[in-house]
Amino acid sequence: MTGYTQIAVEKADGIATITLTRPEKMNAYTRTMGAEIIAAMDDIDAEDGVRAVIFTGAGERAFCAGADLTPEGGGHVFSDPEKVDDLADERVRDGGGLLTLRLFESTKPLISACNGVAVGVGATMQLAMDIRLASATARYGFVFARRGIVPEAASSWFLPRLVGISQALEWCYSGRVFDAEEAKAGGLVRSIHEPGLLMSAAREIAREIAHNTSAVSVAMTRAMMWRLMSADHPMEAHKIDSRAIYRLSRGADAQEGIASFLEKREPRYPGKVSADMPDFYPWWPARM
């Protein structure tokens, strides 16, 4: 998909940057924006040259101020006039959840550079990202109880895993908006940066990944970490990491990793996610 209208995608130095581009609406989320992010992720995952992805918002006020509840927002769950009786109907599915499920399936590391207000889906979409940085001006809110609904975007799965059940429940029960310092203290964000330094900090992390690691190793690590933390016994992790180490240790990237270490030089990993993932990947059943 090309010709995005509510996001911008830039690719440079092995890094893709997805910017939410509705600053006049504080980058409020619409169905169009969700579809465009999913399309952009499909494109990025198919491009071996992209090694990491940064998400941010346009302007200085907001990352994403939640769902656009205005008429020009193009429709949302609150305004949908159609009544669906069968709750298994595809039309019932939450759009924010479709987005976070797609982010969950990414083969590339995802970094959030939260540059301002992030409430509702603006906060929950970041939960499926791997590393979250905040501007000192960032504000977060899981405001659903104050709108008469429940946490969406599969956040009841993501949020407790990131910050613990007690903290997750407190934020969701109250629905209050809180600052970056509280987000960091609660484990939601890695670090806080002055607004002018936020993107450079995110790019530094992305470059560290892009320039020094095996793409295949990183893709496998992401899949293993996200999926195996929910396994009911560490034996499940042992099975997968044993197979992964066995396969990858005999590959070209492992040879290059050892050679570059011994020769004290920068690595040049030849492996590609599109062609060189181990033969048992993916080991889980498709659920999308």
Find the CATH topology of the largest domain: 2-enoyl-CoA Hydratase, Chain A, domain 1
What's the end-to-end separation, in Å?
20 Å
CATH architecture level-2 label of the largest domain: Alpha-Beta Complex
Major sheet size, sense and barrel closure = 6 strands, mixed
- Unreliable parts: none
Which class best fits the helix and strand makeup?
alpha/beta
Percent of residues in helices? 25-40%
Secondary structure layout:
Layout: E1 7-12, E2 15-20, H1 31-45, E3 52-57, E4 62-64, H2 95-104, E5 110-114, E6 117-119, H3 121-124, E7 131-135, E8 139-141, H4 155-163, H5 165-174, E9 177-179, H6 180-185, E10 191-193, H7 198-212, H8 215-228, H9 234-248, H10 252-262, H11 273-276
Parallel strand pairs: 2-3, 3-5, 4-6, 5-7, 6-8, 7-10
Antiparallel strand pairs: 1-2, 8-9
Helix pairs in contact: 1-2, 4-5, 8-9
